[in-house]
Design brief:
With 225 residues, chain A is an alpha/beta fold. Chain A has eight helices and ten strands. The chains are: A alpha/beta (225), B mainly alpha (226), C mainly alpha (221). At the A-B interface, α3 of A face α1 and α4 of B.
C-alpha cells in the first residue's frame, strides 16, 4: 500500500507482513510516516493505493467487528479529560462490548497502578499517568492486533518496565504488536523485528549485532534505494 | 452491540461530560440570550419591536447558538483525538453520528426552553397560543439543523479553517429549515394566527428532516474515513 | 476521454456559430404581450438555469460516486461540475434581476424559486471554498456537500409549481408558441454544447493536475 496527501507522500509503496506472537518496532524520524502506517493498519486511514488484509480478508469484508479486535494507543491518548479514569475505562469497555466489565476495569486500574486515583478527572493527571491509563484503555478488550504510537513517552523507569512485561505477555498470548517509538533502550530486548521509516520509505533492519540504537544509526546513515 | 445502544452510550457519555463542566450549556445559553438581545435592539423602532421580528429572531438565535455548540462539541472531541477513538470502536459509524446528534439535541432543547420565554417576554409574543405546535416546529427545525450540522462538524474536525467553514457550509444548506421555521412560527405569532399554514410549514420541516437526516446517515461512514 | 477531447473544438465551434446566429433569431421572435422586448432575456436566462441544474446534478452524481468508490475521475467530474454550477448560476442570478427590474419593478423578491436558486448557488460556492481552504483530504468532505447541494435541486424545480409565486412557473415552457419555441430550443442547444465543451476541458485540466501530483510523488521514489 501507499498513502499520499495531495503532493506529499506519507508512505511509499510498501509491502509488509506481520505475524502473530511478534512484537515489531517502528523507528524513524518525526514525520517519517509511522503514525500514517499505524493509522492505515487501524482502518481509519484509507491507503491511496493497495490494501490491507487481516488474516486474508480486507477490512471492508470483515466489517465493523474487525475493529473490536484491534487496540490502538494513539499519539494523543484517546482519553476524555472531563471524565474520571474509571469512567473512561467503563465507557470504552462498554463500547467494545467487554464482558465482566467491573472486573476488567478493576484489573486495568490495578495494572496501571491508578486504583487510588480512579475517580479523579483525567485532565488532572500528569502525562505519565495518562499514558498508563491510555494503554489500559487500548487493551481493555483483549485485542489481537495492538498498535502503539510512542507508548514509552512520559513513563518513568518502573512504568516502562511494567510496559515491557505487558508486551511480553501479549506476545506470548499470540497478539500482533506494532510499536512506534523513539525509545531504543526500552525497546531493546522487547522487539522481535525492527522496521525503519524515512520520508515514507520502509526498510527492514536485520539483527546483525549491536544495540538497537547502533543498528538504527547505521541504517539511517546509508542511502536508501 | 446494536447501533442504537452504542449511540445511546455515546450520547450518555456526552451528557456526562457536559454535566461535569457545564461549559457548553452555560456558554451556549448565554450566547443565545445575548443574540436575542442584540437582534431586538436592531429591530426595534419607536420603542416597539417591528411586526414579525419575534419569529425571525428566535430562529436566528437557534441557528447561531446551534453552530456555536456544534463547533465546541467537536472541538472537545478533537482534544486527545477522542473522535478517532470512537471511530476505532466496533460500533457502526452511524452510531457515532446518532450519539453525537442526540447529545446536541438535548443541549439545544435546553437552550430553546430558555429563549422561548425570553422572546415571549421581550416581544409580547404569544408563546402559549399553540404550545405543542410551537414545540413541534422547534423540534423538527432543530433536528434538521443539527442533523446536517453534526455531519458537517464531524467531517471538518480534521480540516483547516474549520471554524469558519462550518457556518459557510451549514447556513446555505439549512436555509430551507430556517425559512420553514420562521414562517411557521410567524403564522402562530401573527395577530391573526393561521394554524393551517403553521401545520403546512411543519410538514415541510418533517419532510426536510427525513431527506437530510437520511442523507447524513448515508454519507457519515464514507466521509469519516480519511 | 480521448474521444471527448477531440469533440471539444467541434463543440466550441458549433456553439460559437450558434451564439452568433442566436441574436438574429431572438430578434426575429415575436414580442411577448405583457413584457415586450425585455422578455427576450429569457432566451439566455432559462437555458443558463437549465445548465446550472444540469451541473448541480452531475456534481451530485459524481460526488456520490466519489464518496462510495473514491474513484479519482469522479472527483474530477465533481469539482468541474461544481465550478460550472457556480458560473452558470451566476449568469442566472445576474440576468434574473435584470429582467425582474424591468418586468416586476424590483431587483429581487424573496419568493421560493429565487431564494432556493440563490441558496443552491451558495452551496456550490461553499463547495469550492471547502476545497480551496479545507486543506488536504477536503475532496471527500466536499463530496458530502455536493450530495446535499444536489438534493435541493428537485425542490428548487418543483417549488415554483406548488407555491403561488411571482416567478413564472414551468408550464410556460410547454405552451410556448412555435415562433418562440424555435429560438428557445436553439439557445438551449447552444448552451448545452458550450456547457459540455467547458465541462470536458475542465475535467481534462483537473485530470492533468492529478497526473502532475502523482508525478511529484513518484519523483521522491
Amino acid at each position: 500500500m501507499s498513502r499520499h496527501f495531495g503532493r506529499r507522500r506519507a508512505l511509499a509503496k510498501t509491502t509488509l507482513t506481520f505475524r502473530a506472537g511478534q512484537v515489531t518496532g517502528l523507528f524513524g524520524p518525526n514525520g517519517a510516516g509511522k503514525t500514517t502506517l499505524l493509522g492505515i493498519l487501524s482502518t481509519v486511514v484509507r491507503p491511496t493505493a493497495g490494501e490491507v488484509r487481516y488474516g486474508g480478508a480486507t477490512a471492508r469484508a470483515l466489517g465493523d467487528p474487525l475493529r473490536g479486535r484491534i487496540g490502538v494507543l494513539g499519539h494523543d491518548l484517546f482519553l476524555y479529560g472531563d471524565l474520571s479514569a474509571r469512567e473512561n475505562l467503563e465507557f470504552f469497555g462498554r463500547l467494545y462490548g467487554v464482558e465482566r466489565l467491573e472486573d476488567r476495569v478493576a484489573q486495568a486500574l490495578a495494572s496501571a497502578r491508578l486504583d487510588d486515583r480512579a475517580h479523579d478527572r483525567v485532565a488532572s493527571f500528569s502525562r505519565g499517568l495518562r499514558q498508563r491509563l491510555a494503554l489500559e484503555r487500548a487493551l481493555i478488550h483483549d485485542p489481537r492486533l495492538v498498535l502503539l504510537d510512542e507508548p514509552f513517552t512520559g513513563l518513568d523507569d518502573e512504568s516502562a518496565g511494567l510496559l515491557g512485561e505487558r508486551l511480553q505477555k501479549l506476545r506470548a498470548a499470540g497478539a500482533i504488536v506494532l510499536m512506534a517509538t523513539h525509545d531504543f533502550e526500552s525497546a531493546d530486548g522487547l522487539i522481535d523485528r525492527m522496521i525503519a521509516l524515512r520520508a515514507g520509505k520502509v526498510r527492514e533492519i536485520v539483527p546483525d549485532g549491536g544495540s538497537l540504537r547502533d543498528r538504527y544509526r547505521r541504517a539511517m546513515a546509508e542511502e536508501w534505494a | 452491540m446494536s447501533t442504537l445502544r452504542s449511540a445511546l452510550l455515546i450520547a450518555r457519555k456526552d451528557l456526562l461530560v457536559e454535566a461535569r463542566s457545564r461549559e457548553l450549556a452555560y456558554t451556549t445559553l448565554f450566547f443565545a440570550v445575548a443574540c436575542v438581545l442584540v437582534f431586538s435592539f436592531a429591530f426595534v423602532s419607536e420603542g416597539k419591536a417591528i411586526d414579525g421580528a419575534a419569529a425571525g429572531i428566535l430562529w436566528v438565535a437557534v441557528a447561531f447558538s446551534g453552530t456555536l455548540a456544534l463547533g465546541r462539541a467537536f472541538e472537545r472531541e478533537r482534544q486527545s483525538e477522542t473522535l478517532r477513538a470512537l471511530l476505532l470502536a466496533p460500533a457502526e459509524r452511524t452510531a457515532v453520528y446518532l450519539g453525537k446528534l442526540a447529545g446536541l439535541l438535548v443541549l439545544m432543547a435546553a437552550v430553546e426552553i430558555v429563549i422561548v420565554p425570553v422572546i415571549g417576554l421581550l416581544f409580547a409574543a404569544p408563546i402559549g397560543r399553540a404550545p405543542w405546535l410551537l414545540a413541534a416546529l422547534l423540534g423538527a427545525g432543530t433536528l434538521g439543523f443539527a442533523g446536517v450540522g453534526t455531519l458537517f462538524a464531524a467531517m471538518l474536525v480534521r480540516a483547516h479553517s474549520r471554524d469558519v467553514l462550518l457556518p459557510v457550509l451549514l447556513y446555505p444548506i439549512t436555509v430551507p429549515v430556517i425559512i420553514a421555521g420562521v414562517r411557521g412560527t410567524g403564522a402562530i405569532f401573527a395577530a391573526e394566527p393561521n394554524f393551517d399554514a403553521a401545520v403546512a410549514w411543519l410538514s415541510m420541516l418533517v419532510f426536510f428532516d427525513a431527506v437530510f437526516v437520511t442523507l447524513a446517515l448515508w454519507t457519515f461512514a464514507p466521509v469519516m474515513e480519511e | 476521454m480521448r474521444v471527448a477531447n477531440r469533440l471539444v473544438p467541434l463543440l466550441l465551434v458549433v456553439a460559437a456559430l450558434m451564439y452568433l446566429r442566436a441574436p438574429f433569431m431572438i430578434h426575429a421572435a415575436p414580442l411577448e404581450s405583457v413584457m415586450g422586448v425585455v422578455q427576450k432575456i429569457f432566451y439566455f436566462h432559462v437555458p443558463s438555469a437549465m445548465m446550472t441544474f444540469l451541473a448541480a446534478f452531475v456534481c451530485g452524481i459524481a460526488s456520490a460516486t466519489y464518496l462510495w468508490n473514491r474513484n479519482k475521475f469522479a472527483d474530477h467530474v465533481a469539482v468541474s461540475a461544481a465550478e460550472l454550477a457556480v458560473v452558470f448560476g451566476l449568469i442566472v442570478l445576474v440576468t434574473g434581476p435584470l429582467w425582474a427590474r424591468k418586468a416586476w419593478g424590483v431587483w429581487w423578491q424573496w419568493d421560493v424559486r429565487l431564494t432556493m436558486t440563490l441558496v443552491m448557488w451558495m452551496i456550490f460556492v461553499a463547495y469550492l471554498l471547502l476545497r480551496r481552504f479545507g486543506g488536504p483530504g477536503s475532496e471527500i468532505l466536499a463530496a458530502a456537500v455536493g450530495v446535499f447541494g444536489t438534493a435541493l435541486v428537485p425542490f428548487v424545480y418543483v417549488s415554483v409549481n406548488y407555491w403561488r409565486t411571482i416567478h413564472p412557473n414551468t408550464n410556460v415552457l410547454r405552451t410556448l408558441q412555435p415562433e418562440m419555441a424555435e429560438p428557445f430550443r436553439w439557445a438551449i442547444l447552444a448552451f448545452l454544447m458550450f456547457f459540455t465543451a467547458l465541462l470536458i476541458v475542465r475535467i481534462r485540466l483537473e485530470a492533468s493536475r492529478a497526473v502532475l501530483e502523482e508525478a511529484y510523488a513518484l519523483l521522491e521514489d
